Amino acid sequence: MRLSTVDLQKRLNPEQPKGLHLGLTVLIALLAGGAFTLALAPYGIWPVALVSPAILYALLMPDMTGRRAFLIGQAYGTGLWCVGAFWLYTSIHVYGSTPVWLALIMIALMGLGMGLFHGFLALIFNRVVGKQPLSFAALWVLQEWMKTWLFTGFPWLFVGYAFTEQYWLSSLAPVAGVFAVSFVAVLLGASVVELLRRRAGYMIPSIALLVVSCALWLINPQWTKPKGTPDLSVSLIQGNIPQDLKWLTEYQIETLKIYATLTRDEWGRDIVLWPESSIPMFQTEAVGFINEMVKMAKETDTAWVTGIPYKDEAAFDASKDKYAPFYNSVVALGAQADGLYKKQRLVPFGEYIPFEGVLDILPNLAGSQDIMSYSRGSDQQSPLRVRGHNLGAAICYEVAYPDTTRKNAIGTDFLLTISNDAWFGTSAGPLQHLQMVQMRALENGRWFMRATNTGVTAIIDHKGRIVARAPQFERTVLRGNIQARVGNTPFMRFGQYPILFIMALLLILSYLGKRPKKLVRLGK
């Protein structure tokens, strides 16, 4: 008869350790995924980012079925998203007026949907590739990358963000981006599991990469350099407009008064920056106010940069358009300032309705004809020009997209991001968002100005360090200085393609190295 080597081992050594009960294993995976949030802002317990993926790795036993592996991965991913993105509850329930029970169901469904990424990660790891740390970490990075584009993308809760201020590891960010940081962290955690299993050889790749990362940290290569001009004085205005009042027509004038008052003593600074949609109306409806602000800016030699909804009436064609296209935008006006940036990455159901064209042909759908969506800005936009510098922009959550921010940073001297995180109240969402901006600064070697409605308004240097920060939920002005820098980091030059190529290569090699089980013939 013929027996595989695995069957032979079981006959020779029948006392094989059994895995945990499926229910207990799923529960552990669920808790491990939920605990990962502790590694990110505002908690910052970064060792959890090593331990949490390592637990998932340890639970995926070599001899388990694909179904069991998928359930374990699905449980981990569901816990990760239900806890890590629970800040969505504030916008759904508090500002969306959704009943508590329905809001909780929506969060659970979101967690189940996003949990599929880890479910398929575990399934592929179990059934397709060799079961060792390199393939596990490579699959982890690929599923993070897929979250930046699949179904429009939701690039949140990456392992690499936990190490934004741990420079012994985040020194890899300017070289290959946040995915490189995620890869080394997950690889290290999985390798420790193998070390505990007395397979010390698996530690070699992770130790080698850690040595490279620490060497970069100690050498401290200057990928970019100061442009050679004096630092620019900036004032970031935080209006703290309540979200339930922000878009009310009767509160629009009050909003403009608040921002004008906060800016009164800031004219004369090099740059005054207002947050996303701080002018809560189209530019065509605020002509008088805008002209007044521009006049003040020019008289005091100030560049004024502000978020505003922009209606492109010149592009309106009544024969085929229901309305003129409009954009979530940021505009540079005043002294030595020019340019308009239109947001590229829109929030599904928040800024546009997916498949809106389908709704137009459903006459029985009440209100379908009244649906209006922001238009998407081109991915080939010129940077803003401010005081002789090129200024790259990112609006709200599009700064969470590494490649979008990278493209916007090319050829610029510094960067800005404007946002309105009032939707998420006192939750962890705005602080996680700030952490992503720090990583984008690291990746691109550029200073960031971040102006928000309710916080966190901050100035971040080219190393991802917060230089100045305003308190949340206060009507205030953050003053500081920023430095123009030139040069490209390796990540700016090559993007995420090198790290994705390496991940794909590792998985191919792992697949090819997974040899068919040899058969042995037992004598009679």
TrEMBL record:
Belongs to the CN hydrolase family. Apolipoprotein N-acyltransferase subfamily. It comes from the Bacteria. The chain crosses the membrane at residues 20-39, 45-62, 69-89, 101-125, 137-161, 167-188, 200-219, 494-512. GO terms for molecular function: N-acyltransferase activity. The lineage of its organism: Bacteria, Pseudomonadati, Pseudomonadota, Gammaproteobacteria, Moraxellales. This is Apolipoprotein N-acyltransferase. Its EC number is 2.3.1.269. GO terms for cellular component: plasma membrane. Pathway: Protein modification; lipoprotein biosynthesis (N-acyl transfer). The gene is lnt. The keyword Lipoprotein applies. It comes from Psychrobacter pacificensis. It is an enzyme of class 2 (transferase).
